[in-house]
# Entry
Amino acid sequence: MKFIKTPVKGMLDMLPSDMRLREHVFSMIKKSYGAYGFMQIETPIVEHIENLTSKQGGDNEKLIFKVMKRGADLQRAIDKGAGEYADNGLRYDLTVPLARYYANNKEHLPTPFKALQMGNVYRADNPQKGRFRQFTQCDIDILGDGSSLAEIELITATAAMLTEIFAEIGITDFTIHLNDRQMLSAVALSAGFKEEEIGSVLISLDKFDKIGLDGIEAELLEGGYDPEVVGRYLSVYRAVEEGVTIEAFCRDISRDVLSEKVIANLSDILECVRPMLAPGVKIVFDPTLVRGMGYYTGPIFEITMDDYNFSIAGGGRYDKMIGKFSGQDVAASGFSIGFERIITILKDHMQGSYKLKNATAFLIDKRVSTARKTEVIARAMELRKEGAVATVLPMAKNVGNQIKLLENEGYDKFEKIYE
Amino acid sequence: MKFIKTPVKGMLDMLPSDMRLREHVFSMIKKSYGAYGFMQIETPIVEHIENLTSKQGGDNEKLIFKVMKRGADLQRAIDKGAGEYADNGLRYDLTVPLARYYANNKEHLPTPFKALQMGNVYRADNPQKGRFRQFTQCDIDILGDGSSLAEIELITATAAMLTEIFAEIGITDFTIHLNDRQMLSAVALSAGFKEEEIGSVLISLDKFDKIGLDGIEAELLEGGYDPEVVGRYLSVYRAVEEGVTIEAFCRDISRDVLSEKVIANLSDILECVRPMLAPGVKIVFDPTLVRGMGYYTGPIFEITMDDYNFSIAGGGRYDKMIGKFSGQDVAASGFSIGFERIITILKDHMQGSYKLKNATAFLIDKRVSTARKTEVIARAMELRKEGAVATVLPMAKNVGNQIKLLENEGYDKFEKIYE
# Structure
């Protein structure tokens, strides 16, 4: 019999120290978002293959782990030759299941509904450093609120949560970037791009951090776009100065392609969020912020930390997505927190594992009598009642190594019982 | 495009009230076992198909959700015709992954290692009331401890945990049943059964609660066993009186088939555990306790509650199982807690959902100015800092229904902001 002791490729076994850190972060996230009225929900990890392959998931749909049909269904598929062998798949994100969940349970839920999801998702990606085939996502979403209040709550709650978590390692500075999909479209239309070109233009603009405006210009020209349009388009972004206000940025954009409502909505978010932030946290209007996913329809936002070259959280409004699933449009805005990234940053700064505190190990020699053992166990019970960790273990032959491994986990008091 | 809004068959969407209850129980379990030095670990939900089909999982192996190969591997399997399409599967329990985990990570872990696992398992069972295809298991295991200390810690910790959880609904009485696989074998051998008949004799004895000793007798005779042997065998159990001691029960069993060590070990467990139990909790020697799984090798135990006809937790020693996987024997004893059963019992007694406490909803009319909104949001922030739940929502057209649904979740204070 072949027994494989390593986990499945790209998936991890979690050691006790990993779990202590993860559980600590989980509980801070739950507490923080819970105070804002986000309610935890859960969907099954297994989802209908039909829902996973509906073209809403972008490239992630290529990475689905498919779950095979069983019994007679499977036999039928095999007999058919070119049949479909899978009826289910593992979810690749938390957004598709949320859309299904909301369609299924809407009448039992408050409106608007503020959801918190924390759970594993699966992608048959090529494993590489920091990229896994099973990893934890943490999403908050507000469904049924078309107003700026949704973004205000999403952003203030997430800023408060991150402030609290990172305070533990002395990081207090991060930046919230805010933009709007409709603003991005308006700039492109205003420069002379056509509606159907916006998608690919934004794919180029999204590379701003990597290739700069000159790189974007080269790419657009290579793509065959009119040099004059490209020039007009990029001149808008070239003129942007740090700390540009929404009003200043929009001054020259035709109101034919950009409604005052979009501008007012974005200003409203900035004005309401700004006074709620802890010192060190900034919110800025960032006209070059794009966010990859095509399904965003309104405000988009991202949080970056100065010392890391990745965003720690990102999201936006996606008013049309749930309707594409369920046939009924639902206003929706969500923020996805890079849980695994938070863990990476905390580990970087903590120099080692997250340890037990106030933990006693009683190590009992095998000659010890039942009566004496009962005494020791009773003492361990007392310590537990006082809130300490206590364990009663048989003394190992190599007691030095036993103690060393217990110390690694954080045990700091040892009592050896020989008789 | 076909969109399916119900979850996959046999799996559940968790509503906020479900999650509040589950999270509450999770956190009590973690805290309770944590104090005893059980360390939380996690394995991937996806496991190698080879490990899942190794014959250690009994009937559960028939119920595996298989995960399909991908890319070139899948194509090869299809081209072969009768190829194996799956390379992975979803775990059907937490014990097989634990055996793999321990083989993989042993050198980083303390010895003995006290593990706590809480996670979902998957079985393509026929869904029926209270039986699901995705459900949560909660296991504690002690690996590398061959002494009675393992059982003492497993049982006292679990009794303490259940005492604490059920105290909330006023249930204080439950019974811990203790027996030993070697004792069960000894009785059968002593009566004249052959070694290889023990397995099937115990399958009959396991039905004691359902069909009684007469039913077992009928079944064994039907099975073709010697009436004299069957008579001798059952006379031992017929003579058992309530509260029988281990010593009294073993008096007439030949020491050729039952070593004094087994008796002493079992007595030791009883003596050490008994004084640690809360009032209302009993531990009894139960000579008819069998526990289904064939892999048990020593003490077995189960916890029952008087008002329910199922056990709430069960476990035992399985010293040979990990070795069958990894080739190296590891002493092991574990307790599996019926998490979903605990949830069922709590729900029965709580008459409704587990609700939010101290929760305020600010309902904001759309005419409200940005400045006024900022004021309200700041007040919500204050409440959150004081430990309350506060949410800021746009007022719905049907505000009465909005309030009703929020009240369902536990919101108890409402403030309507019109201007």
About this structure: The first strand of chain B starts at residue 39 and ends at 40. DSSP finds 15 helices and 14 strands in chain B. The radius of gyration of chain B is 27 Å.
